[in-house]
Amino acid sequence: MTPKSSSNAPSYTITCRMNHEAAALERLCQVVRIRGFRIAKMAVESVLEGADQTLNIALTIQGVRPVAMLQSQLEKLHTVAEVKLAAPVLTHGASRIA
Amino acid sequence: MNGAQHILEAFHRHNIQTVFGYPGGCIMPLYDALVDDVRVEHVLCRHEQGCALAADGYARASGRLGVCIATSGPGATNLITGVANAHRDSIPMLVITGQVPSGLIGTDAFQEIDVLGMTLGIVKHSYLVESADELPIILEEALELAQSGRPGPVWIDIPKDVLLAETAVAQINTSAQPKTACPDLTSATALLRAARKPLLYSGGGISLAHAEDSFREFAECSALPAVVTLKGIGNPGKHSTHNLGMLGMHGSRAANRAVDECDLMLVIGARLDDRATGKLDGFAPNARLIHIDADAAEINKLRHAELAVRGDLNTILGELTRGLRETSLEINDWRKQCQTWRATGGFQAADNEEPLAPITGPAFIRQLSRIAPDDTIIACDVGQHQMWVAQHYEFDHPRHHLTSGGLGTMGFGLPAAIGAQFANRQSTVINVTGDGSFMMNAQELATVRRYNLPLKLIIMDNQCLGMVRQQQELFYNNRESQIDLDDNPDFVAMARAFDIPALKIERTDQVRRGIETILAFNGPMLLHVAIAREENVWPIVKPGGSNKDMINEPRRPAADKKEKVA
């Protein structure tokens, strides 16, 4: 069960760039929810990049789980080109990546 | 060429020869195109869930892509459990559904349902095709996506008008993916060398990466004590002397003890699932962790990894083996300790010597393991029998053990066995099931008969939902609730109604002959095995509990329960 995100849970800002395909926003929002976060604010802009329609999304989210986990889950989405945390937060000791 | 024909062209291009499906209104153009196609074998199951699970079993047993097809509305919704099953176990699958014509989408048309919306959480990716021109490109992308990286199901929902629309033959670039460079493993090797009690922990990711041989070589070369998850069973082979078996809720005491005591855990192709780890706070409390996986999102998800390595497991395992080949690890004391635990804390099931005694689940599975050919594929369902197979059947390869690990789907076994038999026509395929699970997809007996598949069905019948009953007994003060199945049909008569021969056994002295009879029979055959209602799976960790608090109590006398009922 997704933990409830109380209003005093930590807040993060994420920006995301993804292809403007059918259900793109639903897909993004579903991952945010199931991974334990609540959307407090959302701004979406559709732009033309070359021949492709792209969505630029700014999300303010709240949740008690490590936000880096959400970031990595969003990055897995096939249509997501980039996910940035406005203020990166290290919730674990950082792993060395080989 | 219309949209439907483009789909078949994509199948040909990718050497997809077997698909599982069920026709209906909006997918009819594809079924019309199939009439003229002799290169794709379409297997007609009797329920769309059976199609999806058969495609799943086909993929697990073969290592190739599974394909399932259904129509819009209920056809698509019936697929959902099977696709979710594939998603949870990262099985490569292509799902194709017809959708109502584009102009009718959103009008509540007959057999219209928002497939894209309702399946977002159970797919690696999905598409609603909006024009015929984009279909060939989407097909190519979907086929690549389903099988690359961490595999998974990809769903393409195609409106009927798109299937019928003529479109030009597109130029498809099918260039092979470049081989990725191996990450630097110096740190991993150094950590392994520094550890005094290192433990190898592997899961289903080994097979998903087709890395069974590399893993076996690494396990032999390193001689690391090893534990496996449910989906890792079969690695690194039944003759490995360092394998302590499955860990977790129904794992061996030896495996859980080694996890508890190790000082370094090398996790390869596993996601540290809660059924394996138990309560995370108490899991491997003394261990540093190296996590090697194809999926970056699994790193640090549940347990901090001191070192994370992401990439192709075949390449990484080869490099690790080279790194250890020159100088072996100096962990003999640890190896000896693990051997002692293995000798005393493995799965124990005394063979019953009393010929008239009732059949017990573990003893039956041990006998089956001894008698069945080495390349036998066992497709389990979900419940007690699933755990007895995991504990007591000696698998030599993970593709011989098909089990619904993540979703735990009752009804998986029979259609998965059908898929496995299509993937391995010459192999012995056995569906080991329970009386509860069997009834969830029993309609697929008709598929077995239709294609005269020689697969064998074994129903371990305890006249109840045994795993639920066991947990109610142990953790809910023995308050049994809705688990009685003592009004099961006569399974032998039921099989015969599908023109499948069957026999029933009830006593220990009938076990060997029963197994030998079904294995020797040239065609499908069902063995109905009556087992005691009160049999439990041991050991067990209380859900949410710590693995080191495993419970292993002798089962209560069967008579107790009978007296209470009376």
Describe the structure.
The complex is a heterodimer of chains A (98) and B (566). Chain A has helices at residues 24-34, 67-76; strands spanning 11-19, 38-49, 52-62, 80-85, 96-97. By secondary structure, chain A is of the alpha+beta class. Chain A has a single domain, classed as ACT domain (Alpha-Beta Plaits). Chain A has a 4-stranded antiparallel beta sheet, with helices on one face. Chain A is globular. Chain B is 37% helix and 15% strand. Chain B contains 23 helices and 18 strands. Chain B is globular. In chain B, 53% of the residues are buried. Classes of the chains: A alpha+beta (98), B alpha/beta (566). The A-B interface holds A 21-23, 26-27, 30, 34, 66, 68-69, 72-73, 75-79, 92-93, 95-98 and B 116-117, 120-121, 124-128, 130, 145, 183-185, 187-188, 291, 295-297, 299-301, 304-310. β5 of chain A pairs parallel with β12 (307-310) of chain B.
Keywords summarizing the entry:
heterodimer, A: 98 residues, alpha+beta, Alpha-Beta Plaits, 5 strands, B: alpha/beta, six-stranded parallel β-sheet, 23 helices, 37% helix, disordered C terminus
> Can you tell me the residue ranges of chain A where pLDDT is under 50 for at least 5 consecutive residues?
none
Percent range for β-strand residues of chain A = 35-45%
Rounded to the nearest angstrom, the radius of gyration of chain B is 24 Å
Count of runs of 4 or more consecutive helical residues of chain A: 2
Oligomer: heterodimer
Annotation, overall tally of beta strands of chain A: 5
Could you say which overall geometry of chain A the principal axes of the C-alpha atoms support? globular
